[in-house]
Design the sequence.
């Protein structure tokens, strides 16, 4: 069994990007810029935003956190997004979700310029992804695809089973793996909570992607020998033995499923670190297209 080290791969990607950013700074005296808009004071959102900003700064990208009050109106937020759409210093715009209940998230996402939508959530970018056009991939699915690529895991003709159908992970990774492209070209099944017997599908998987949001949900008896397991889940479970009183586990019963897997991602240090790494990749990509460098 090979442990897929997402933390190490993410560090490699950041190192590669730092060299590219240093190069464009020398040649063009410009660097990519990312603005993250956070509305309100959700502690988890604030943590994610700070991590993203820190990652940008470490590789020499320009980063800004735009902090807005929780009672901002939807129109004011849309105006703020428009302001950054027109700001040439910023090549990526990210609105941290979730937003307060009085704000329509879809309307805000749709207001972001398609060319600066580095989260890959704009309907135009999701449509382009589905039909196989060049686009921004959502960062977590993009990270999964990159892990498979960097570990030389064959995907052509393989049966990829995705457990979960969210717009953030399940649907986009299914569409990405369907494409007739390098690192994809797979036979894809998407299954979810409506299935009468989930293990009928999971046992068929050559590559199993678990993104269902339930701790230790995928058990040893649900997978076949030699399966490649990608665990997207981040779940807190109580653990009195730890200082915090909890520990973080994935959607897969790691200890037992690992016995049958050929490759498996751990939680933490698996898919998680890749999400921010691929956000940086998308921001650099946006920069090169907008600046034509």
Sequence:
């Amino acid at each position: 069994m090979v442990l897929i080290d997402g933390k190490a791969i993410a560090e490699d990607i950041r190192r590669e990007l730092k060299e590219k950013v240093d190069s464009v700074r020398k040649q063009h005296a410009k660097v990519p810029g990312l603005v993250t808009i956070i509305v309100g004071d959700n502690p988890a959102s604030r943590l994610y935003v700070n991590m993203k900003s820190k990652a940008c700064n470490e590789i020499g990208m320009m980063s800004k956190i735009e902090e807005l009050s929780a009672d901002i109106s939807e129109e004011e937020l849309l105006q703020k997004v428009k302001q950054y759409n027109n700001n040439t210093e910023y090549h990526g715009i990210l609105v941290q979700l979730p937003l307060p209940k009085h704000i329509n998230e879809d309307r805000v996402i749709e207001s972001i310029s398609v060319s600066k939508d580095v989260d890959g959530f704009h309907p135009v970018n999701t449509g382009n992804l589905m039909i196989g056009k060049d686009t921004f991939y959502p960062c977590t699915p993009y990270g999964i695809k990159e892990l498979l690529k960097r570990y030389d895991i064959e995907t052509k003709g393989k049966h990829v089973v995705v457990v979960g159908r969210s717009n953030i992970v399940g649907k986009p990774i299914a569409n990405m793996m369907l494409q007739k492209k390098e690192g994809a070209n797979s036979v894809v099944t998407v299954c979810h909570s409506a299935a009468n017997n989930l293990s009928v599908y999971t046992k068929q998987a050559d590559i199993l992607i678990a993104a269902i949001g339930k701790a230790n949900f995928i058990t040893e008896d649900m997978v076949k020998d030699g399966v490649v397991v990608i665990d997207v889940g981040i779940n807190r479970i109580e653990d009195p033995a730890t200082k915090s009183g909890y520990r973080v586990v994935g959607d897969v019963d790691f200890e037992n499923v690992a016995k049958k897997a050929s490759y498996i991602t751990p939680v933490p240090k698996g898919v998680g670190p890749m999400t921010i790494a691929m956000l940086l990749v998308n921001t650099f990509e946006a920069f090169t297209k907008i600046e034509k460098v």
User: Anything to note?
Assistant: The chain has two domains: 29-114, 139-272. Residues 6-28 form the longest helix (23 residues). The radius of gyration is 19 Å.
